[in-house]
Amino acid sequence: MMRWWLTGLAVLLLWVAYGISPYVALYQLSRAVQAHDTAAVAQRVNFRTLRLSLTKQALAAAVDAIAARRDLSARERTILTEASGALAEPLVESLVTPETLIDLLDDGWPVRAGLTRDGGAGEAASGTPDTSQGSDTPRGRNGLGFHASTVGQLLALFRSAEPRGFRGMVVSYPPDRPLENRFRLRLRLRGWTWRVVDLELPGSLRERISQRLTGAMQR
Asked: Using CA atoms, how far apart are residues 166 and 163, in angstroms rounded to an integer?
């Protein structure tokens, strides 16, 4: 009887450990981002799958922008679409490095990749950071960064969590923003480690990447 009781307790403890493990991983990732610890971030990210995901998002945004242009012929749209495919991969390569990913997760914008904010993306046209939103966040950030280093922030992410089978989970952040202004971070359990495998970008950032691609094609 005691043996079965101990077995049940062990299973329960393992289940509890599994249940909290993705939030421990989110906490560790947040701390690594705040410390600008590139080695720790690299251990918690699958850069291959993340690169593929962001390439698809960049290409889709560029194709939508090209399709919306009424001044182009069907042939011109085809040429630009093919060109955007060739340009999307090197742009994403510049985005998906530990340093640039830290920059993106820290405040929601990859300035290191050369993507400057515009007036609609959290920075005034003059180049002065907009602190009207999220002015109480650390270092005057715009409130779009990934923050999971306190109990309150982890609970907010918990409420936004969506299970993806037994080994996957998606969290959207910042949880207090409209859905179109949120990032969606997907984690997958491989072995004993939860890793970031996908990051769905908000509309404003996808649009800015699209502008970067189409601007490069026009030069």
From this structure: 7
Q: Is 4 left (phi over 0), alpha (psi -120 to 50) or beta?
A: alpha
Cβ atoms within 10 A of the Cβ of 212, count?
20
d(CA 174, CA 156): 9
Cross-strand bridge partners of residue 193: 190
Cα separations (Å) of 98 from 1, 36, 107, 164, 218?
Answer: 52, 9, 15, 25, 30
What is d(CA 183, CA 16) in angstroms, rounded to the nearest whole number?
A: 27
d(CA 60, CA 65): 9
Token pair, residue 200, equals 């769905």
Encoded tokens for 45: 């990210």
DSSP 201: P
Structure tokens at 36: 């600008």
Give me the mean pLDDT over the 46-57 stretch.
89
Q: For the full predicted model, state whether its pTM sits above 0.85.
A: no
AA identity, residue 132:
S
